[in-house]
Amino acid sequence: MVPVAVVETIAELRAGVSDPSARGERIALVPTLGALHDGHLALIRRAAEVADFVVVSIFVNPLQFGPTEDLDRYPRTLDDDLAKLEPLGVPVVFAPTVDEMYPSGPSQTRVVAGEVGSLFEGNSRAGHFDGVLTVVTKLLNIVRPGVVVFGQKDAQQVYLVQRMVDDLNFPVTVETVPIVREPDGLALSSRNRFLDDDARRAAVKLSASLQAAAASAHLGTQAVLAAARSILADEPLVKLDYLTVVQPQSFLPVDDDYRGRALVLVAANVGGTRLIDNELITLS
Ligand code: PAF
Asked: Is residue 49 scored above 90 in pLDDT?
């Protein structure tokens, strides 16, 4: 197995990716916060299918964490991450320090996520998506990939990145990979490691609520929401933040009489850990 080259500086990274791009190879970027799990590995496998050269970035971006959020306790597990990447043949991991990414302190210039950026996750985590879009922009400018790969679990993030790419004409294709789940349905997340046994048992209610929502899709929006809510209300450890049904093209809540493809989004605090999940349904 060829060891993964860990690159910490922008200059070195650019030198490393200049050869593949000069050879006309397609570069894929998989941006991550690290603490890699099988969901991330699915992104990397997809990246290797659609490009010749894969760069995985591992950077816990302070700009996307609010002052009371879990920036300090967010898991940083670089050695474990590299051990998972090696068998996949990832040639380069870009793992910059905060100083390398923000040498003059938090960047003055930000990409603003707009209306959708202040809803749902953005409502509960003020400034989160501005921080995400700003760091994704920086990573795209540093790596200059032809394709960038994201997971559908962060559906609002995927929507906003695609909007940014379209609105600002970034020369990159956004590739989305389906959610990877535990056998009982829990969506994989780096934060799942914070769940104790009781919270882990309770956490499955999120995906169960989405299944109940999907089973009621033929009865309309209100029935979908009621079905999901009744599953969540059953579990005292689940403190619901939001449950909503959005139109995939606008990411805005659907009307009661809406028919067609829709995304059910759920976010909750489960025993002290914030979890999100979503499911595509067809309201008929
Ligand atoms: O989804 C994530 O892991 C992060 O928001 C991202 C895209 C790596 C930006 O820091």
From this structure: yes
164 CA to middle of ligand 1, Å?
15
Ligand 1 binding pocket (C-beta < 6 A) is 31-33, 61, 64, 132, 135-136, 154, 157
Range 24-41 average pLDDT: 98
- Model-level pTM? 0.97
Helix then strand count (H, E) for the chain reads: 10, 9
Query: How many angstroms does the Cα of residue 133 sit away from the middle of ligand 1?
Result: 9
Predicted pLDDT of residue 58: 98
37 carries an active-site annotation: no
Alpha helices in the chain (DSSP H): 10-22, 38-50, 78-85, 98-101, 114-117, 121-124, 128-143, 155-167, 197-215, 221-233
Structural domains in the chain plus CATH codes: 5-177 (3.40.50.620), 190-283 (3.30.1300.10)
- pLDDT tens-place string over residues 148-169: 999 999 999 999 999 999 999 9
Compute the distance from residue 86 Cα to the ligand 1 centre, in Å.
Answer: 21
Q: Whose CA is nearest to atom 9 of ligand 1?
A: 132
